[in-house]
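chain below, 299 aa
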Amino acid sequence: MALAAAFDLEIMQIDAVNAFINADIDEDVYVPMPQGYMDIEGKQGKVLKLRKALYGLQKSPKLWFNHFSTTLRKLGLIPVPDEPCLYVHPTELTMVYFYVDDILLFGKPGSIPELEALAQRIEETYEIRRIKDANHYLNIRIVRDRPNRRLYLCLDQYIEKIVTQFHLEYAKQPFTPLSGQELIPYEGEATLGEINAYQIRVGSITYPATTLRPDIAFAAGKLAGFMQNPSPTHFKEALRVIAYLDATQHLTIKYSSITSQEINPSQETNLSQEINPSQETNLSQEINPSQETKPISRD
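prediction:
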């Protein structure tokens, strides 16, 4: 996304339909007959041998990855070292990034016909679904200001979903992820239900912490240390982090075409001074006055 912002790249998004079943399974796996079919005379006691990878099998994601990677190589793309899900064309400014079955195609400005041709070649092997606008990817909302070569990534919709899931819509919104109270191991014993509930909540904040919200990374890591036996205090702190995300859901990661020559190394950036917590930056007015998006951006 940083390259897309810096070089004003075209972005096309496609989705592979039932991706896993395109890959042949590489070992013998047998499954019971479906209900009803096993009652047919002569079918009792028989099983089915799988020919394709199915959702739910441990090896299916890897088999699909190998299959799709082979297809991309046949199309003339090569993998980027240390980035196995990113493929580039050796002579053209064309890139393909995929995460399981969610695929992004990148090309130079004005290369939509070339990207469409690439999508059609992929479609010769897989059934794909074209997504009109590349404005959501892996629960991340993408907002582009192409005239100024700026791109913003935001998790507001994901945060709204988990806030609703845990019924925190009207919870008090704190200014910090953790309260500052010392978190120590629980001397009591949590029930299985309490452990499961705690793990679900901490798991829900791990994704933001490892993608766009480094401000909660410490809190997520700290709370993850009590997964096996959480106390009521740990549970309360986990809810606090989610409430904090709700209060700051419009914070974004911003990419732009700024170069090193435009940065003054002697100037120190103070985010707390750059952003007034009591005043939202209306990004929608900066991009399109008709939009209702109002994320706050932090460089």
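The chain has three domains: 2-27+47-134, 146-155+250-261+270-298, 156-247. The CA atoms of residues 75 and 121 lie 8 Å apart.
thats it, cya
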